[in-house]
Amino acid sequence: MRILLTNDDGINARGLHSLITELNTIAEIYVVAPRTEQSGTGHSITVFDPIKAIEANIPGIKKGWLVGGTPVDCVKLATKRLVPESIDLVVSGINHGSNLGTDVLYSGTVSAAAEGVIMGYPSIAVSLDSFDPAADFTFAAGFTGRLVREILKEGLPKTTLFNINIPFRPAEEVKGIRLTKLGTRNYDNLFDERRDPRGNIYYWLGGGVLNEEQDPDSDVYAVEHGYVSITPIHLDLTHYGLVKKFSRLSEQYLNYLLRGE
Amino acid sequence: MRILLTNDDGINARGLHSLITELNTIAEIYVVAPRTEQSGTGHSITVFDPIKAIEANIPGIKKGWLVGGTPVDCVKLATKRLVPESIDLVVSGINHGSNLGTDVLYSGTVSAAAEGVIMGYPSIAVSLDSFDPAADFTFAAGFTGRLVREILKEGLPKTTLFNINIPFRPAEEVKGIRLTKLGTRNYDNLFDERRDPRGNIYYWLGGGVLNEEQDPDSDVYAVEHGYVSITPIHLDLTHYGLVKKFSRLSEQYLNYLLRGE
A256 to chain B nearest CA, in Å? Predict the structure, then answer.
């Protein structure tokens, strides 16, 4: 079995290395990860610049590259160019910080797994709900290892990735596993306004998560209450209900829209 | 009425200016658009750098800013900081080139409209199916104008954006309007491998669209066959069917996954 490992925190991130140690007894590991941290890059790809890929000498893996691009670049480049063998699973993470609710759209970690699905591979994204630089990844990596064994045995539904968020607490205090839907994440004080030495205004994106009431079935609720959250995510954004509804618009109305007559 | 206009081709793009001319008789126009082209930036946000916003003097609009960031940055900054009045509609486009099928995930144009929805505003993304630098935007802008009038009158369903793709052909040869689902877009020869003067390998992301059979209900099919495509897009990526299916896993199995016991 072969696993492609990537992330958005960059190739030196502790979360990624905790997974190498855990997964290299299960499968051959290929690491293709960004050279620098890529948080917030979402599903972006590098179209105006060349992408450098340099072989990385990482103990315990089959082969690795550090890539001067986004997490999605990494997965595209790995599966289409760098890794000659076929991949059985794409694992993105472990991210240092959760990726929950609406935030998955901004997340390089989740987008890398989404790209894995687009390229046709079973894919998971894993995040630990802590920004503490000293956070212990042991439980999160161990859990991911057990999950990966199951996935390699049982397979994953096509066109779906699993987004996994792990609460940051001692293993014995993790209450269980919940299959969840995406919750909502909204922020206040989103921009910090400053002036440069020449008096020009600039902004830092910042903001704190608003403490909103959450659906008990949501990923946000699950992690807040001490559960591992697993959300199956699909990539067909079509709102089929509305396609149906608007398809009932009259020819006359549509013709008016089209030609203004 | 007030419209926020943005894009991913940059504030000087012809597609954006064609919309100013068309929409400024309908509503007050605020333009908040990237300083430089941002194609392929998807839903990325700028978290590691400050974001500069400079007032732009554009005739025919209420107020404008050019922003040193992504299309999603523009919408966040506009709605949270720059535009003091409430916005009635976010319009992203007109993009120079289509945004169809799976490609909407990489599209800054569509992501800007998605961010509009996340911020709570009715939002549409508009793209013209041509990369010809001299492409005529007249029909596309006129159509968008008629659609915007209707949307401002009738409203849009919350949490949904409309992704509009307009075929590039003379107005009288546009066959009609179709409400569509997202099709598929796959590419071949995705990476072009080169060597720098020091012998190091680098890659350019390129590739041509694979000519695949398309569902007749899809956006790709509609535009290829001369129809304006309107796809309602929602942002809840949860695969509810699988949440339900996996929720039937036994406590024992989940406990094994959790603790390995």
Answer: 8
Chain B residues in contact with A217 by the CB 8 A cut-off are 243
The verdict on a CB contact (< 8 Å) between A118 and B111 is: no
pLDDT tens digits, one per residue of A111-158 = 999 999 999 999 999 999 999 999 999 999 999 999 999 999 999 988
Please give the Cα distance from A71 to A123 (Å, whole number).
13
pLDDT band (50, 70, 90) for residue B123: very high
HSE-CB of A221 using CA atoms within 13 angstroms: 14
pLDDT of residue B188: 86
Domain count, chain A: 1
Residue B99: DSSP 8-state: -
Q: Strand B208-209 to strand B160-166: parallel, antiparallel, or no bridges (unpaired)?
A: unpaired
Cβ contacts (< 8 Å) between A182 and chain B: which residues?
A: 236-238
For residue range B209-257, what is the model confidence (pLDDT) as tens digits?
998 999 999 999 999 999 999 999 999 999 999 999 988 889 899 989 9
Residue A44 to residue B47, Cβ atoms within 8 A: no
Q: Give A-chain residues touching B83 at CB under 8 angstroms.
A: none
SS3 B195: strand
CA B237, CA A107: separation in Å to the nearest integer? 13
Range of the domain at A149: 2-184+214-259
The CATH number linked to A247 is 3.40.1210.10
- Residue B209 resides in a domain: no
Domain membership of residue A95 (yes or no) is: yes
User: In chain A, whose CA is at the least distance from the CA of B177?
Assistant: A254
Within a domain: A111? yes
Model confidence at A41, in pLDDT bands (50, 70, 90)?
very high
